[in-house]
Every structure is written in C-alpha cells, then in structure tokens.
Write a structure and sequence with these properties.
Helix content is 31%, strand content 20%. It is of the alpha+beta class. Strands 11, 13, 14, 15, 16 and 17 form a six-stranded mixed sheet that branches. Strands 7-8-9-22 form a four-stranded antiparallel sheet. The protein has a three-stranded mixed sheet with strand order 10-20-19. A hairpin with a 2-residue loop joins strand 7 and strand 8.
C-alpha cells in the first residue's frame, strides 16, 4: 500500500526474492506526487555519512534521539545503511557527492534546492521511475488510481485488501502478507492534534500533501500499536510560504534561528535555539500560537549564517519578496514587526551577555551551544523574519520491530502485517525530536521487510482483482 521509496523498495526486493507482488497507489498520473519526489535526495544516517563505522552510526542515532530510538531498529539501520545504498546502485540508481560530510550520497540529478516542480526528472523522481521499471521486469504490478479503502484479516495469515478507483470500480486482493507504506499522517489535521499541534491548520504543509494516515488507521483496526506523539521532521520557513509559492519547500530559516533568537510578539524566546531547526519547528508547532514567531539577528548573522548552505535564505528570501523587517534601531525594528520593544531589548541584552560571559544557565529557556554557536545581536543593522513551522513527515505512527512486523499492544507481531517508512514509529522522535533520515529508514526497512516475508513464506497466494458494481 503506497508507492513511494519505502513501498517500491520493499516491493522490488520482494519480487527479486520471487514473491508475487502487487503495489496499490492512490495517485493517478505517472509522476504521482509523494514526498520521495520532493526529497533533496540525501541518503544520510542521523546527519552522518552512511559509510561510517556501524558503531558510530548506531551511537549517533541514539544520541540524536536522546536514547528514544528502539535499540534493535537503530542497530538494523546502522548495519544496513550502506548495503541499502549499494543495492540501489545495483538497480541503477546514481549518486553524487556533495560538499558536506553527510552529503556523500545524493541522488542524481540533484534536487538539493528546488522550488515548485523543480523536482521533475531529478533525484527522487528519477529513482521512483527506475524502481517501477525494475519492478515491471520481474512481473510485479504497480496499479495507480487504486486507493485502499479497507484491510481485513480473514484468518491468522490471510487478508483481503479492498481498493477503489476514481470511477467507482472496486477490487479485492487476497494475500498472505500486507505491507503498509503510505507515508505519515502530516496532512491529517485530526491526527496531528493527538500530539503534534493543537492548531495543525497553522502548520505549513512542506510536503506532497498526500499522507493522511489511512494505513495507520487500517493497522490500528487490526490491533496495531500506534504512537502519535513523537513530533515531525520539518524546518522553520518564512511565514510567507502560505501565500508565496516561491518560499516552499525552501529556503530553510533554521541557520538564522540557531545564530540568533526565536521570539514571539511579546519579545520572549520560544525555545532553546541550540537544538536546531527541527526541534524549533516542533516547539513552535506546540506553542500557544504557531504563527506568532520571529527570528531576530543582526547583519553579521544574515551575511554569514544566512548563506551557510544551499537551503539558506540569503539572498533567496529577498529575491522572491519574502516579508522581513530591518532597521538600525531595535525599537524601530520591533515596531515594524509588531513585537514588544522593551521586552525584545531585554531578551537581546540577556542573549548578548550570555555569549560574552559564556554562562547560559540563567536564560529562560536555557540555551544549548549546539554545533553552530550563537552569535551576538549587536550589529549596525537588525533583522526580524516572521516564520512558521513547516512539516515534512511525522515521526510517530505504527509500531514495528526490526523485521518490519507490525506489533500489537502486547508487543507481539501481527502475522502477515508489515509497515515501512514514514508511517512507522520507534526510530525518530523523543524529547529532542531526533532525526535519523527518511530515505535511509525507508530503504533499509523496505529491504528488511521483504526478507522477513520471504523467510516466513514460500509465496504470496493472490487472486486477480475482481470488480464489483
């Protein structure tokens, strides 16, 4: 169920293992939109190169997630990160090497910085088309315009999957194994209210807007254990992204936030900027008003951190007319942006004193130094950028073990039911909203799931689709 990278990797590997495979995809056109097509294409493991020693990758996953990650899942992803890339290369996938250490494997042609439909014929788009062609050569089928409407369990190892096309035709598939791979629930406001944000309509959908959590709901109806409170992968974006298409899915505003401060209109800091943009996006999403936030920096930060990588805002945000405020007076800056001037001055003074003394303990909230230390806000020109939380995919979802098997409330596997990719939980999230990497997670667990199915069955018995009026 689902033909993004997680679904197609698991399907193709299963077909290689001589299993009978059908992929059901709700999207209708050849280039159906999904997050894989929009990806920047970096196959990293917890912001590390997948080629690093397994132990180092494992330690990084656990530290990034503040030991939230399931140890077995962390181990499997660490052990198989590099082999999953090699397998993709054996299928014909092409990678290039970027300038940063964790940019060692970037899908080619690259889509590191793209706007709107700049993803076409690049990166993830090329990869999905390649995997589909390979799937076809092995006799497997990808059926577009087939929206799964129900998954029912007939007996211990027998399922009926019902799908419906746009014209109302219904198809039933009898199978021994079901793999749910339809992405997270980032575009389902009702599910987001369970732990991501009380005001999900104020989060910017920095994604394909196709993932509604249908697979999660089906799995839960079959007794699966789910966790919806682990946050999401995303970034701080210009608030203008809601009305200016040139400001999504890039540029990120994260580098500026970690250089300066993130405040609300009361002039009060919202969260610890040292934990980075993904953490800040999550904290903003959980705040009283996710659309009441401003990044405050000076000209030094704007001209240095504002240009730190290809997704950074300087000069892209200015070039496309993104709203921002600048002034050589903090009082004037505050008045332009609608921020309490006195409170902002006090907040900046405390920020600058902490940097000068090296003591951040008195700040509320406290300030972690992080990989990119804070910069003083004291230049001749000051900047204020209204920002929002941009959500890419959710960390929570269906609980699985390291074999890809869906677990019930007693942590026992449900026979024949599997889940892979962004619809699953247990690897990313925790109090630090730790990020491991959507692409590497999908590739590793897709291959792992196919092997598990092969190990448990000789073949998947499956009827041809039957139409009911």
């Amino acid at each position: 169920m689902g033909a993004g990278i997680a679904g197609l990797v698991s399907a193709l590997r299963a077909a290689e293992l001589e299993l009978n495979v059908v992929v059901l995809e709700r999207g209708k056109p050849d280039n159906y939109l999904c997050n894989t097509r929009l990806t920047s294409g970096i196959f990293h493991c917890a912001m590390q190169s997948a080629s690093l020693p397994v132990q180092k990758l494992n330690e990084k996953i656990l530290s990034n997630t503040s030991d939230f990650a399931d140890p077995d899942l962390a181990r499997v992803v660490s052990e198989q990160a590099m082999s999953s890339i090699r397998w993709l290369q054996s299928q014909g996938a092409r990678f290039i090497k970027g300038a940063m250490p964790h940019y060692e494997y970037i899908l080619s042609p690259p889509t590191l910085f793209h706007q709107n439909e700049g993803w076409r014929n690049k990166g993830g788009d090329v990869l999905l088309n390649l995997l589909e062609r390979k799937l076809s050569t092995l006799g497997a089928r990808l059926l577009r315009n087939h929206k799964v409407t129900s998954i029912t369990r007939q007996q211990e190892n027998s399922y009926v999957v019902e799908a419906e096309t746009e014209d109302g035709n219904k198809y039933h598939f009898n199978t021994s194994n079901v793999v749910i791979a339809d992405g997270g629930y980032q575009s389902n406001e009702s599910l987001l209210k369970h732990g991501v944000s009380n005001q999900p309509q104020k989060l910017f959908q920095r994604n394909a807007k196709q993932s509604l959590g249908d697979g999660l709901n089906f799995a839960q109806s079959l007794g699966a254990q789910v966790d919806l409170k682990q946050g999401f992968y995303g970034h701080l974006l210009s608030r203008d992204a809601f009305t200016n298409d040139q400001l999504w899915p890039n540029p990120w505003m994260d580098p500026l936030a970690t250089a300066g401060i993130l405040v609300n209109s009361k002039g009060i800091r919202i969260a610890d900027e040292g934990f980075g943009g993904i953490y800040l996006a999550n904290e903003l999403a959980r705040s009283t008003d996710p659309l009441d936030a401003f990044i405050i920096v000076d000209e030094n930060a704007w001209n240095t951190r504002g240009r730190i990588n290809m997704q950074s805002p300087n000069p892209k945000l200015i070039d496309v007319g993104g709203i921002h405020f600048c002034s050589n007076s903090l009082i004037d800056l505050a008045q332009q942006a609608g921020i309490d001037a006195n409170a902002l001055q006090s907040t900046i003074q405390a920020h600058n004193e902490a940097i000068l003394t090296g003591d951040f303990s008195h700040l509320i909230p406290t300030r972690t130094l992080g990989p990119q230390p804070p910069l003083p806000i004291s230049g001749k020109m000051y900047y204020a950028f209204p920002v929002c939380a941009g959500i890419t995919y959710t960390f929570g979802g269906i609980k699985t073990n390291a074999k890809g098997q869906v677990l019930n409330e007693k942590d026992l596997s449900i026979p024949g039911l599997f889940a892979v990719g962004s619809c699953t939980s247990g690897l990313e999230g925790g109090k630090s909203f730790g990020y491991v990497g959507g692409l590497i997670k999908a590739a590793v667990m897709g291959m792992q799931t196919a092997q598990t199915i092969k190990n448990h069955t000789t073949h998947c018995d499956q009827d041809e689709p039957t139409t009911t009026n």
